[in-house]
Amino acid sequence: MLNSIPLSTERVTITDKLSMSEHVRDIFLKCAQSLHVIRVLRRHGMNDKCLQAVYRSIVLAKLLYASSAWWGFTTADDRHRIEAVVRRAVRASLYPADGPAAAQLVEDYDDTLVLPPYEL
């Protein structure tokens, strides 16, 4: 029975039915914890520009980690949960309200992974 497959230093959890719901739940919880830390940093006086950089480098990195491998296996509920993380960041002024949605971020991130052709 396939329970999970560890990748690199992070984990991408895949169930035996190729469901990503457990993985998305784990990401959602980790991002919620990180957003809490960012709120604490704000209370301690960190400016918005720095907080936005922390959000991009921690929360968005968690959301996008190996997303090209697991995004296609997510359900509508999974994607709604991921979008909720982005909406929370918009409300906290950490992410622009007119910024791309999570699905677009994944697609853009996936496009940046394409390497140029190797020439001999």
Summarize the SSE layout with pairings.
Layout (H helix, E strand, L loop, with lengths): L4 E3 L2 E3 L8 H23 L4 H17 L2 H4 L5 H16 L10 H11 L8
Antiparallel strand pairs: 1-2
Helix pairs in contact: 1-2, 1-4
Number of helices: 5
| Rg calculated over all Cα atoms | 16 Å
How far the N terminus sits from the C terminus, by CA atoms, comes to 44 Å
Q: Could you describe the largest sheet, including whether it forms a barrel?
A: 2 strands, antiparallel
- In the sheet with the most strands, the strands line up as 1-2
Task: Spell out the helices and strands N to C.
Answer: EEHHHHH
**Multimeric organization:** single chain
Percentage of residues in DSSP E strands: 5-15%
Q: Unreliable segments (pLDDT under 50, ≥5 consecutive)?
A: 1-9
Please give the domain count: 1
Which term fits the overall shape? Answer: globular
